[in-house]
Design brief:
Elements lengths: L31 E5 L2 H11 L5 E5 L15 H8 L3 E4 L9 H5 L4 E4 L29 H18 L4 H26 L6 E5 L4 H6 L3 E5 L10 H15 L8 E4 L5 H10 L3 E4 L11 H18 L1
Parallel strand pairs: 1-2, 1-3, 3-4, 5-6, 5-7, 7-8
Keywords: Signal, Transport
GO molecular function: metal ion binding
Pfam family, one: ZnuA
């Protein structure tokens, strides 16, 4: 475990478990072990740390899952947390499943949502969560820009030897992100104000950034579907709304999510079902996999709305 150069227990950039012993003492080495909790955070962290000497970034959760509401830490997850010098997390309640593990860890914690203006959590059909805020901040490039800055500044405080590199990497990532975000907004400009139905509550930031309105966000428990009454109410509401809008209202399911109820609604209202990616899993490092996935989402929207 690499010795941290500047503990940040007193700084607002970090939330850390200062003074709390780890469950076990890792073997000392010269490597700074960084653990990213989710795939988007992993991509942003590896973008910032690319080429950094003595730095290792690993990923905690990389599963084909549409959300982390019911995720349970494995034994391997617990060992990864115990062996981390730094834990980079999305924040905003997304990692509530690891609260107990964090309280027992001595790692410095970088909360990427720290200081952000968060959207309230959307209500969903068939789900009852206590999350106050919507944690899916990575679906808006503006928030990603803040996440990259948070990671870069925090790691520079902790590992000043690589500080210049972190800053350079962040700057390059910000440039690529800004250019991509501009192209996404231009592509969706003709469809600003259009309404969509999503079968996941995670696209609020995404829709807001691109000028779209989520008419209904429906989240279903794994292995279950919305009730017949719920489906009928949704169908009636969509039919009424479509009377006042140009074209049909497309329905979007989440990659790896259920499509049964969406298909039922689509048949009743005469629209099509498309898939959007919350980018919760994948391969690769750096910012490019994120940019590619978001571009695919934008292309899907243009196809559906056009």
């Amino acid at each position: 475990m690499k010795k941290l150069l500047a503990p940040l227990c007193a700084l607002g950039l970090l939330l850390s478990a200062c003074g709390q012993p780890a469950a076990s003492q890792p073997v000392e080495d010269d490597t700074l072990h960084i653990l990213a909790t989710t795939y988007p955070v992993y991509l942003f962290t590896t973008a910032v740390t690319e080429g950094a000497d003595g730095v290792e970034v690993s990923l905690l959760v990389n599963q084909q899952t549409s959300c982390l509401h019911d995720y349970t830490l494995t034994v391997a997850d617990m060992k990864a947390i115990e062996g981390a010098d730094v834990i980079v997390m999305n924040g905003a309640g997304l990692e509530d499943f690891m609260d107990d593990a964090l309280s027992a860890s001595s790692a410095q914690v970088i909360d990427c949502s720290e200081g952000m203006s968060l959207l309230p959590a959307q209500g969903h059909e068939g789900h009852d969560h206590d999350t106050e805020y919507d944690p899916h901040i990575w679906m808006d490039a503006t928030y990603v820009s803040s996440m990259l800055q948070q990671i870069s500044q925090s790691l520079t405080e902790l590992d000043s030897a690589n500080g210049d590199l972190y800053t350079q990497n962040e700057s390059a990532a910000q440039t690529a992100l800004t250019a991509a975000d501009l192209s996404w907004r231009e592509a969706l400009e003709p469809y600003k104000g259009r309404s969509i139905v999503t079968f996941h509550d995670g696209f609020q930031y995404f829709a807001n950034a691109l000028g779209l309105t989520i008419f209904k966000a429906i989240e279903e428990e794994e292995g279950s579907t919305a009730s017949a009454q719920e489906l009928a109410e949704i169908v009636d509401a969509i039919k009424v709304t479509q009377t006042y809008e140009l074209g049909t209202m497309p329905i979007f399911t989440e990659v790896n999510g259920s499509t049964a109820s969406a298909d039922t609604i689509a048949r009743e209202v005469g629209c099509q079902v498309y898939q959007l990616d919350l980018i919760m899993s994948g391969d690769g490092t750096g910012l490019q996999p994120y940019l590619d996935a978001m571009q695919q989402n934008v292309d899907t929207l243009v196809e559906a709305l056009g």
